[in-house]
Amino acid sequence: MRVSRTALIGLPILIALPLIVHLLFGGSEKYYLHLLIQILIWSFIYTGWSLMGRFGLTSLGHGAFTGIGAYATVLLWNYAGLTPWLGVPVAMVIAVVVALLVGYPCFHMRITGHYFALLTLALTEFIRLCIVGLRDYTGGSLGTQPRRYGDGVSLYAMQFEPDRVLSYYIVLTLWLVGLYIWWRVDRSMDRFALDAASQDEEAAASVGINVTREKLKVTAISAAMCALGGAIYGQYQMYIGPDTIAGLSVSLNIVFACIAGGLWVMLGPTVGAVFTQVLSEVLRVSMQSSVTLQALFGSAVLALDTLIYGLLLILFIIYMPKGILGALLEKREKTSSAPTPPSRAVLR
Amino acid sequence: MDCQLDIFFLEAVLNGLLLAGLLALLALGLNLIFGVIDVVWICYAELVMIGMYGIYYAHKGGVPLLLAALFGILLVALAGAVLHQVVIRPVLDSAPINQLLVTGGVLFFLQAAATMAFGVDFRNLGIRFGSITLADMSFSYSRIITFGVALAAMLVLWLFLSRTYVGIAIRAIAQDRQIMPLMGVDQRRIYLITSAIGGGLAGLAAALMVLQYDIYPQIGLQFGPLIFMICVLGGLGSLIGGFVAAFIISEFIAIGGSCFATEWGYAIAFLFFMVVIFIRPQGLFGGRS
Amino acid sequence: MLELSDIDAGYGGFQALFGISMSVQPGEVVAVIGSNGAGKTTLLRVISGLLPASSGAMSMEGVSLRQTPPHRIIETGIAHVPEGRRLFPRLSVESNLKIGAFIPAARKKFEERLAFVYELFPRLKERRAQLAGTLSGGEQQMCAIARALMSGPKLVLLDEPSMGLAPVIVAQVFDLVRRIRREGYTVLIVEQNVRQVLKIADRAYLLEVGRIKASEPAAELVASDEIRKAYMGI
Description:
The structure holds three protein chains of three kinds. Helices cover 75% and strands 0% of the residues of chain A. Chain A is an all-alpha fold. Chain A is globular, with a radius of gyration of 20 Å. Chain A starts with a helix and ends with a helix. In chain B, a hairpin with a 2-residue loop joins strand 1 (131-134) and strand 2 (137-140). The termini of chain B are far apart. Chain B is globular and about 60 Å long. Chain B is 72% helix and 3% strand. The model of chain B has no long low-confidence stretch (mean pLDDT 88). By secondary structure, chain C is an alpha/beta fold. Helices cover 37% and strands 26% of the residues of chain C. A six-stranded mixed beta sheet of chain C has the order 6-7-8-3-9-10, sandwiched between helices. The longest helix of chain C is centred in the last third of the chain and has 16 residues, at 167-182. The mean pLDDT of chain C is 89. Chains in contact: A-B, B-C. At the A-B interface, helix 4, helix 5, helix 11 and helix 14 of A face helix 4, helix 8 and helix 10 of B.
């Protein structure tokens, strides 16, 4: 099986990566580890989103779930002294409840396509506005920080940011859990039910598939994953802001990265995260160091990465709707004769 | 909180009504495009932003305000046509969601382009029209002008859509796409015209907004979600629905904002929107299933 | 007037028409009959450009139709009344008629032609401001034909005008066809209702699985035992 062969080679490399980074980039290893950690956290979040997205449930509401995860965890810690070990599960439960509250009517009333996207966009806005509105607790649009506990690395407070290597292994585990969930869903009967439903809901219902229940199941898992990802992001960054971990930009970034990487393959969202994070880092660094660009645009040069990012997204959707990994695998499978991944579902 | 049925409450209600005119105008263009081309421009508010900058710089460069406004309208109309031709046409046969997302790419692009070209500073024309005072209530003239112009624009659009050949074709195409060639209507041309009109409406909204609001690259995020919500609430593609929805939403914002904080007005509006859509997914006036 | 020679057409990998050759002369009413799925509707869709032919030649009064973009075929004088009428349900009757006159040549004569179709179908004049979707089936068929006439066609393509209508109304619809014929329009009509259509047609083509099986004066087809058995249930 392809996946396991990749895993056999890939996993040891990933585990040894901090050492490799240390040997290669001794001086700036913190920076490279930071980049890797970011990629892994976002990969986990994107993988969570793609659980829904691959079945045509294009949610723009996942910025709400990451926001709930991050903010609920931090607020419970800061104001109730609740350890994130309890706070994170509570945040995940809140996210799942919100997801079900919005998902049930959506699926029951068969809201799909544009309507689903715009409705979930409203959820994102609603949560963002609540976060900003509760400024006495959340710091409003400026964001807030988890209260430091001890010297910064603490099991009880789930704070690990100063130790980059530890952080790396934590998020690597998280990411592997994400892939495992993806794999389990992909192998389950639910996946076939959802595939059927995304192609023809009426037909799926007529052969006895409880479409609403199947969709709710995958929505709950997806929301919980995004909340967990958001919470870990907050704990690692030690800062949360309504625009960095919640809101429309986050939602759009999630969707785009998944599309860029490829929705229908397990590592697609991860490839999307690598692509988008590395792209924006490379652009950012090269712009900061480029005297010409700085002279030309001043501090506005920082927007150039978003500009190129937007442009690439447009090109991706027009010319490569299956994403980088999806397109690569398709190319490979045309030459070999392995079965093609189920890819028509959302494209229709 | 301090919410009671007094003169300030009435002031909030009336200011909500004035805001409704602008929001209805914004929703109108997006709705028209959705109804005809079946595509949602997520970047619609960013087109407005481009228009606002266009007008700002034209006026600062010495062009009289009215001419600058006209320039803004034409600029955004052109932008709408270009958007359709360059970005939307290649994905017309793709999944609806890809069409929606591709305009999301345009959103990032335009925001970043504006940041690079114009910087992150808040700018405004610095024109003050003053305000009118009625029994302790005060209404700014710019809001009243905005409301009047928005209403007039909607009337003109309605006349266009119900009286002219092209206007009727625009309405017809939303009802039955396939048989349009039998009427001698070139669908591509109608799409392009509609995109330009949708853009022009965004340009007009921009011309009205520069009178009231500061211009900055992220202003689209302030209005964009609100406009989508109004369109969906009214029923995507329903022009009258958009108007009624704009009114409802702006009252929530105005009253909620005057009783609590601004965000809560918006938050309540979004919550109300979600609840309504659960009860009536096709929106208040939507005919689609 | 209309000439088709050796036309092939289909949907995707499925070929629906095989080497169709036919012609319509000015002033004629020509019927195309055949069972469900024989390709009758496809044939009309090919003529009016809704479906591109894959090979063969078509011309209307010498103008090649395969070289004309779909939305300009109406300018050659062909108006197609599609299957199921396909009015714009949320436009008024008069707006429906107005869009029938969308082409530049027809716009100039809009008032004149409007008066003409109202005279032809007084019912439509009564209901001019009503939404087309609220008309009865028979009235909708009137409106669909009137809309086609607004472009000032020479040839009217009628696709299953009696489909989905009550028997009483069906008789009215065939009266409508007679009336537009009397006004000098050439008609190419596709019908399942073979018995009725052969009464008003001069000639008929029999279409079977995408091929023309017979082409005869209508009267002879009516007399043919085969036709009577297969299509008229006698």
